[in-house]
UniProtKB/TrEMBL annotation:
A Pfam entry, by short name: AAA_21
Organism whose genome encodes this protein: Phyllobacterium brassicacearum
Taxonomy, superkingdom: Bacteria
Protein name: ATPase
An MF annotation (GO) of this entry: ATP binding
C-alpha cells in the first residue's frame, strides 16, 4: 500500500494544501516557511494509527498552538488531515480487479471542546473520521465516525455499529484497526504504522546511536537509531552484502571503512580511518557529523526498508563533502521504498534530483500560509 497524496487544512501554517506523492517527495526551502509542518502532518497521520493523535497535538502546545492562526471562515474550528493510497492487494481480496484503481482514503478531523462539554479547554478532540475505498465506480465507506459513534463494514460488507463508544481523544483507526474484525481498516493501520520518521539523531555522548545494541537481527533502524550496531551487524554477518554501505561510507568519510565484529551478547561497530589503519575508532570517539552519517546509512541501506522513510533536514551536522554520498544513499533507497525528504540544502536537493530525476518542490510562505512554488490548488503544477 503506497501513499499517493496528502492534504492538510487548518494546521499551523498549513491553511489548506494538497500534495500528490510519488516514489520520492523532495522538499526544499528556507527557515520558517513551514517545511517541518508538512513533515509533522505526516507524523500526525501515523499518530492517528497509533492512537496517540490527541497526545501528540497536546505535546506540541495543544490546539491553541496547532491551529491555523490566520483568518478563518465561519463555522467549526477544525484541523483536517487526509491521506490517499493505492492498494492492489486489497483490490484482489475485495473482489475488484486491479485495473479499477482501487484507492483507500483516510481522513481525520480534530476540533475544540464545545463550551458546555466535559474535557479540558484546549484538549484536541477527534470529531470525525472516515475510511473509504474508491473502486473506480463509487467510493465505499468502510468506516465512519462522528463524535463517539463509529460505524464500519465487517468482513461480509455489512455496515454495523461498533459496540464501544469512543472517547474524544481516541481514534477509530487505532481502535478498530487493532480489533481484528475489520480487515481493510487493519491493513491501512498496519501500513501507516510501518512508516519511519528520522528527524534528527542525537549525537551527544549518551546518544542511542553511540551505544552497543542487543545482538538481535535488526532488519531496519529504530526511529531513535538505538539499534544501529545491530543493523550493521545484520548487514555484515547475515546478509553478507555491504557493497553499497562500504562505498557510501568511504565516499563520505575520506576512505574510512566500517568495522563490525561478530556479535556476542551485544553488537558494536567502529571506523578505521586511512591515516590510522591500525586504530579502531569507537562510536563514542566519532564526530557528530560522522556518527550522524552512519545513522543515516543505517536508515537508508538497512536489510529491509520501512514502507515509507521520512527524513527531516538530514544534512544537519554533515560537512558539504558528505552530501553527494548522502544523495547516493537516498537514490538507492528510493528504488526500494517510498521516501519523504525535507531539506534546507539546495545543494543536497540538486544532488538528489541529478540521481533520481525527481524535481525538488520549493516550499514558500505567502500571506502566512505554507505553499509550494508553482503549485495549483489541485496539487498539479502550472508547467505540467
Amino acid at each position: 500500500m503506497r501513499l499517493t497524496s496528502l492534504s492538510a487544512t487548518g494546521y499551523r501554517s498549513l491553511r489548506s494544501i494538497r500534495l500528490d506523492i510519488g516514489r520520492l517527495a523532495l522538499f526544499v526551502g528556507e527557515n520558517g516557511v513551514g517545511k517541518s509542518n508538512l513533515y509533522r502532518a505526516m507524523q500526525l497521520i501515523k499518530a492517528s494509527a497509533e492512537g496517540t493523535l490527541s497526545y501528540e497535538i497536546a505535546r506540541e502546545g495543544g490546539m491553541q498552538s496547532a491551529l491555523w492562526t490566520g483568518t478563518r471562515r465561519s463555522g467549526p474550528v477544525r484541523m483536517v488531515f487526509n491521506n490517499e493510497f493505492d492498494n492492489d492487494e486489497t483490490a484482489i481480496r475485495s473482489g475488484y480487479s486491479v485495473e479499477t484503481g482501487l484507492a483507500p482514503s483516510y481522513q481525520v478531523e480534530i476540533g475544540l471542546r464545545p463550551p458546555a462539554a466535559a474535557g479540558f479547554a484546549f484538549e484536541p478532540q477527534i470529531k470525525e473520521e472516515t475510511l473509504s475505498i474508491d473502486s473506480g465506480r463509487r467510493p465505499v465507506e468502510m468506516m465512519g465516525r462522528k463524535g463517539p459513534a463509529v460505524f464500519a463494514r465487517d468482513d461480509k460488507g455489512r455496515r454495523i455499529e461498533h459496540p464501544v463508544r469512543l472517547l474524544d481523544s481516541e481514534t477509530a483507526l487505532a481502535i478498530l484497526g487493532s480489533s481484528g474484525r475489520y480487515p481493510e481498516i487493519g491493513d491501512l493501520r498496519a501500513t501507516v504504522l510501518g512508516w519511519r520518521f528520522y528527524h534528527g539523531f542525537r549525537t551527544d555522548r549518551d546518544s542511542p546511536v553511540r551505544q552497543p545494541s542487543l545482538a538481535i537481527t535488526a532488519p531496519l533502524l529504530d526511529e531513535d537509531g538505538g539499534n544501529l550496531a545491530a543493523v550493521f551487524a545484520t548487514l555484515v554477518h547475515i546478509r553478507e552484502d555491504t557493497v553499497d554501505l562500504d562505498r557510501c561510507i568511504a565516499d563520505a568519510l575520506g576512505g574510512a571503512t566500517l568495522d563490525v565484529p561478530v556479535p556476542g551478547e551485544t553488537a558494536t561497530f567502529g571506523l578505521r580511518l586511512p591515516e590510522f589503519p591500525q586504530r579502531l575508532f569507537r562510536p563514542e570517539e566519532l564526530s557528530d557529523g560522522q556518527i550522524r552519517f552512519l545513522a543515516l546509512a543505517g536508515a537508508l541501506l538497512s536489510y529491509r526498508l520501512p514502507r515509507l522513510v521520512a527524513l527531516n533536514e538530514p544534512e544537519t551536522s554533515l560537512h558539504p563533502s558528505m552530501l553527494p554520498a548522502l544523495a547516493d544513499m537516498i537514490a538507492q533507497a528510493a528504488e526500494r521504498t517510498q521516501l519523504w525528504i525535507v531539506t534546507h540544502s539546495r545543494v543536497l536537493a540538486d544532488e538528489i534530483t541529478a540521481r533520481t530525476g525527481v524535481r525538488a518542490l520549493t516550499v514558500i510562505k505567502q500571506d502566512g500560509a505554507t505553499s509550494i512554488e508553482g503549485m495549483k490548488l489541485s496539487g498539479g503544477f502550472e508547467d505540467d
